[in-house]
Design a protein that fits this description.
single chain, 2 domains, Homeodomain-like_sf, Tetracycline Repressor, domain 2, mainly alpha, 9 helices
Length: about 210
């Protein structure tokens, strides 16, 4: 039992350190040697738990998705208007980015330059999120038919949400440097931005 707990703790330590290094330096500039050094273990243990650096990177993405899926499931069980559904989706996505502010930049840097990794992520999203997307699509069609929202393609709506939410996290390092505001102040700005995104998108959907 103790050995099992120790193995789990070591695996989680490796994941935590690897995630931070990948976020800070990117996939190519992070080595398993450096991960092992920061964790305080030997490199053999990295390969024992994850085999390759690619597997370790992929596992981190899987963990992020595993954090989102329960929230999507809970959301899918609620009977609300489509505009309220959109507000909730924006809230969930933005909150995840607030907890992982470096994630959007890493996704752009890494997935945009590696077709295999991009295809892997696409397959993972299809596997895990497709049921929720299908429900979202049915609700969108019904909302248009009922006159609750104007006609809009699902990809356009999702891109609006993803891009408007992610933008502030992509520019915030430069934004802070240029304006001289501190991170604590930025968190207040981000919270205000979340409310603004909700207002802009929901108002823009009304007929």
């Amino acid at each position: 039992m103790a050995n099992t707990e120790t193995n789990h703790d070591m695996e989680q330590s490796i994941l935590k350190v690897a995630e931070q290094l990948f976020l800070d330096k990117g996939f190519n500039r992070t080595s398993t040697t450096e991960i092992a050094r920061v964790v305080g273990c030997n490199q053999t243990l990295i390969h024992y738990y994850f085999r390759t650096k690619e597997n370790l990177f992929n596992r981190i993405f899987e963990k992020k998705l595993e954090q989102i899926i329960p929230q999507l499931f809970e959301l899918s069980q609620q009977k609300v208007s489509f505009l309220e559904r959109i507000r909730q989706v924006i809230e969930i996505h933005f909150s995840i980015l607030q907890q992982n502010p470096k994630l959007p930049r890493m996704i752009l840097n890494e997935l945009g330059t590696d077709p295999k990794r991009t295809e892997w992520l696409r397959s993972l999203l299809l596997e895990k999120a497709k049921p929720y997307y299908m429900q979202f699509e049915e609700e969108r069609k019904q909302a248009i038919q009922n006159g609750e929202i104007r006609p809009i393609e699902p990809i356009t709506l999702l891109l609006d949400i993803l891009s408007m939410n992610a933008f502030i996290f992509l520019v915030y390092p430069s934004f802070c440097n240029i304006t001289g505001i501190e991170l604590g102040d930025f968190e207040k700005v981000a919270e205000t931005r979340k409310k603004e995104v909700i207002t802009l998108i929901t108002n823009g959907l009304r007929p």
